[in-house]
Amino acid sequence: MKLMEYEGKQLFREAGIPVPGGAVAQGGSEAGKITAETGFPAVVKAQVLSGGRGKRGGIKVVNSASEAEAMASTLLREGLTGEKVERVLIEQGVNIAREFYMAITVDAGIGTPVLMASAEGGVEIESVSEEKIAIKPINIFIGLQAFDVRAAVKSWGLEEPQVKEIIAIAAKLYDVYKSYDADLVEINPLGLTEEGSIVALDAKVIINDNALYRQQQFQKTRDRYDNDLEYRAAEHNLNYVKLDGNIGLLCTGAGLTLATLDLIIDNGGRAANFMESGGANYTNTFHGLALVLSDPDVRVLLINTFGLVSRADVICRGLGDAIKELKPAIPIVASIRGTGEEEARRIFREELKIEPFHRMEDAVKEAIKLAR
Question: What strands lie across the sheet with 300-307, from one edge to the other?
Fold first, then answer.
């Protein structure tokens, strides 16, 4: 679950990480009133989950209450490049001399949290070359060590008091990471002010969905998801990501879905979604299929089943029942492999009148042809 910036900063504030003063507004006049406390210049920031707000006009410096009111009203009324804005964060302006990057996330490859730090702050970390990012594994039994933080920021050229500030902030960031069962806690940018202090200018926090029963202060509401489909998927414990293509995917497992996405792209097609549907679970299969079919961009449905732990015949029994009930009006292409595939293929061939492919490469090519 992604948190809004203002929610992440509240966690930072409670942990003792310095953030600019400010408050959230849901109306233009309220935004103007908040500037009486923040002073000028102030910053109006659209509260959305997607990145790149600044480039899209979602972050503006204002120098009067009337400017703040007008900017907030525009964002709340018009949204941000098609994305609805329900809140704006009004913050004190800060004189920034330099911007850095700091985050704690999990490295699945080594099975441990890691500290990530870079002198290249203020831009998406994906665009920063690897040699400019310091990565320090964190031993969960002893915690984040000051010498690791010091080594990570050694190349930043900071004075000793500033290094000590950053060490303290990193320790508190790790506390947030642990306390809230986070997958990611990120400060980008972490600012060095012209006065010489360190402040978190942004906050990105993602809570692990499997830990939400322990973090009940965070509820699954529509504003935490990028679109209606992803919200509806979350209600049924499905991982769904809307993409920009026209081939709807229903595959058994995240790895098979990624492989199918690669095949589609390699053959000149575009997928409409990524979804980990839960395979043999009938309920998730039904809701997963309903989600894919509700996307108006989908021209063809591509089912890719490889049943190992979950048997192919059990998976296809659920799929067959869901297809019979939902009665898709678009073409369906299927590839079926795995344990019990003979019965699975019979279900599709005899009950659904769909001839399944044995090779998923052939199914992908057929789906691309139909989508065109």
Answer: 239-242, 273-276, 247-251, 300-307, 332-338
Classify residue 71 as left (phi > 0), alpha (psi -120 to 50) or beta.
Answer: alpha
The distance of Cα 17 from the centroid of its chain, to the nearest Å, equals: 23
Residue with tokens 């899209």: 56
Structure confidence by residue, pLDDT tens digits, 68-103: 999 999 999 999 988 899 999 999 999 999 999 999
Interval 273-282: pLDDT, tens: 998 765 444 4
Q: What is the Cα–Cα distance from 250 to 273, expressed in whole angstroms?
A: 9
Residue from 126, 129, 132 nearest 100 by CA:
132
- Of the candidates 277, 267, 279, 283, the residue with the CA atom closest to the CA atom of residue 312: 279
CA distance 77 to 187: 28
**Is the bond leading into 189 cis (omega within 30 degrees of zero)?**
yes
- In angstroms, the CA 51 to CA 293 distance is 28
4-15 per-residue burial string, b: 16 or more CB within 10 A, e: under 16: bbbbbbbbbeeb
The residue with tokens 């309220």 is 30
Q: Which fold has domain 21-92?
A: Dna Ligase; domain 1 (3.30.1490)
Q: pTM score, two decimals? A: 0.79
- Give 125-170 as a 3 state SS string: HHHCCHHHEEEEECCCCCCCCHHHHHHHCHHHCCCHHHHHHHHHHH
Report domain extents, the chain.
21-92, 96-211, 228-371
The CATH architecture assigned to 96-211 reads 2-Layer Sandwich (3.30)
| Measured distance CA(359)–CA(337) in Å, rounded | 8
For residues 49 and 105, give the distance between their C-alpha atoms in angstroms, rounded to a whole number: 18
